[in-house]
């Protein structure tokens, strides 16, 4: 074990979703993290000690009486770079919120001085119970990141919010938190939950404007940047509403996802979510125009005549509308995709829209749209320019949230 490897404590609660955590553990270890699994005693009834030991490469104990000479109930929390608890059951959240220390995991939570993440999983009624909501609020107030559970199939035939997000999504949360709390050599650690207690809205993807039941006017936006913004906001403690238009991407763990199709759908969903939001980031590519007339039957190709011209009308300007309706202290961020004179066009758009920040991308063939990386200049209403060199879209997302966090009251 090298000193450079991030030290992660993976706490496992007594829920049937514990089997999913085996995949999270595999992803953490294979990406270079040194992981010690600390289950509750009842969690071992779902996944046994040999499995955790084999996947982590470390012995596993649930009580404070093993290896007492090494004082594990204190040392594990002190040495950790991250404590990640999944699944966090209602019982485990309650014990953590009230500072109980009746096993090795809850002792570790009390001694940890690093970021702590809880990924809840339980039945919907338990998640929505006032006691659970109060415990979650208490943990968040103390600086812990409590990821919103996913919605979907639960134990048995039940369906609803309370499902543990997929391991790949939880891994991205863990990686994002560690990237801020344990940056590269020489870089200062950044606040890991500077958006805690904030509600942010992010739009993602590209809208489609129907011509007939088969055809539409669309664009090349993949939603990768919007989803990166949602993931990084979750990792920084925010409650995230993601309004996603026509994306083929997994839902970011911890975000509430609202799916839309057209610009009108997007406008309605964003306006509704923005009414209670501290910040709105409009990363989606929204169509400026839509067909004036929708044909309810497929337009047939004629052998003798060409197609009739499609008359277009303007869609409502969502960004300008948000600025006009903004609540006190709300920060609004727009995106601009430009092919030439990007700064000049970006400045003109910023002045026209009236938002606080405008992220300007140069787009083109194999550039930005659909690509895994991005480069941008973030223009501010007070005249500053923040250059973001080409890199992962999560890096640009963090720059955006840094600028947003600095402007929140």
CATH fold description of the largest domain: Rossmann fold
Shape category:
globular
Strand order of the largest sheet: 12-11-8-13-16-17-18-19
User: Architecture of the largest domain, CATH level 2?
Assistant: 3-Layer(aba) Sandwich
Q: How helix-rich are the residues, as a percent range?
A: 25-40%
Binding site for CTP: 288, 298, 335, 349, 353
Region (Phosphopantothenate--cysteine ligase): 200-409
Cofactor: FMN; Mg(2+)
InterPro entries: CoaB-like_sf, CoaBC, DNA/pantothenate-metab_flavo_C, Flavin_trans-like, Flavoprotein
Present the secondary structure layout.
Layout: E1 7-12, H1 18-30, E2 34-39, H2 49-56, H3 72-79, E3 82-88, H4 90-97, H5 104-111, E4 116-120, H6 124-128, H7 130-141, E5 145-146, E6 150-153, E7 159-163, H8 167-181, E8 199-205, E9 209-210, E10 216-217, H9 224-235, E11 239-245, E12 255-260, H10 263-274, E13 279-282, E14 289-291, E15 312-314, H11 318-325, E16 331-338, H12 342-353, E17 357-362, E18 373-380, E19 385-392, H13 393-407
Parallel strand pairs: 1-2, 1-3, 3-4, 4-5, 8-11, 8-13, 11-12, 13-16, 16-17
Antiparallel strand pairs: 6-7, 9-10, 14-15, 17-18, 18-19
Helix pairs in contact: 1-2, 1-8, 3-5, 4-7, 8-9, 9-13
Descriptive overview:
With 409 residues, this protein is of the alpha/beta class. It contains 13 helices and 19 strands. It has helices at 18-30, 49-56, 72-79, 90-97, 104-111, 124-128, 130-141, 167-181, 224-235, 263-274, 318-325, 342-353, 393-407; strands spanning 7-12, 34-39, 82-88, 116-120, 145-146, 150-153, 159-163, 199-205, 209-210, 216-217, 239-245, 255-260, 279-282, 289-291, 312-314, 331-338, 357-362, 373-380, 385-392. The longest helix has 15 residues, at 167-181.
């Amino acid at each position: 074990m090298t000193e450079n490897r991030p030290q992660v404590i993976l706490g496992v609660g007594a829920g049937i979703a514990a089997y999913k955590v085996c995949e999270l553990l595999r992803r953490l270890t294979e990406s270079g993290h040194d992981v010690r699994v600390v289950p509750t005693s009842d969690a071992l009834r779902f996944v046994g000690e040999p499995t955790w030991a084999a996947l982590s490469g470390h012995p596993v104990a649930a009580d404070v009486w093993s290896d007492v000479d090494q004082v594990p109930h204190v040392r594990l929390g002190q040495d950790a770079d991250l404590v990640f608890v999944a699944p966090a059951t209602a019982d485990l959240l309650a014990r953590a919120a009230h500072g109980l220390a009746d096993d090795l995991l809850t002792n570790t939570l009390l001694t940890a001085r690093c970021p702590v993440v809880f990924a809840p999983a339980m039945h919907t009624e338990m998640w929505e119970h006032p006691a659970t909501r109060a415990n979650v609020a208490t943990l968040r107030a103390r600086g812990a990141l409590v990821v919103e559970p996913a919605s979907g199939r639960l134990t048995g035939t039940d369906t609803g919010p309370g499902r543990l997000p997929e391991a790949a999504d939880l891994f991205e949360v863990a990686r994002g938190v560690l990237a801020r709390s344990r940056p590269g050599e020489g870089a200062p650690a950044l606040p890991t939950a500077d958006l805690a207690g904030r509600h942010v809205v992010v739009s993602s993807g590209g809208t489609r404007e129907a011509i007939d039941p088969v055809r539409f006017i669309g664009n090349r936006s993949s939603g990768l940047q919007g989803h990166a913004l949602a993931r990084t906001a979750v990792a920084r403690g925010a409650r995230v509403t993601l309004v996603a238009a026509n994306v083929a991407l997994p839902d970011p763990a911890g975000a509430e996802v609202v799916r839309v199709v057209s610009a009108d759908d997007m406008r309605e969903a964003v306006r509704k979510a923005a009414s209670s939001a501290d910040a709105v980031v409009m990363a989606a590519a929204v169509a400026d125009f839509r067909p004036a007339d929708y044909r309810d039957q497929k337009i047939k190709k004629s052998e003798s005549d060409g197609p009739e011209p499609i008359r277009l009308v303007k869609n409502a300007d969502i960004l300008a509308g948000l600025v006009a309706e903004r609540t006190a202290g709300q920060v609004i961020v727009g995106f601009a995709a430009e092919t030439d004179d990007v700064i000049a066009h970006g400045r003109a758009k910023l002045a026209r829209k009236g938002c606080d920040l405008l992220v300007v991308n140069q787009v083109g063939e194999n550039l930005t749209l659909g690509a895994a990386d991005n480069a941008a200049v973030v223009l501010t209403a007070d005249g500053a320019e923040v250059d973001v060199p080409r890199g992962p879209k999560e890096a640009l997302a963090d720059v955006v949230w840094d600028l947003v966090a600095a402007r929140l009251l």
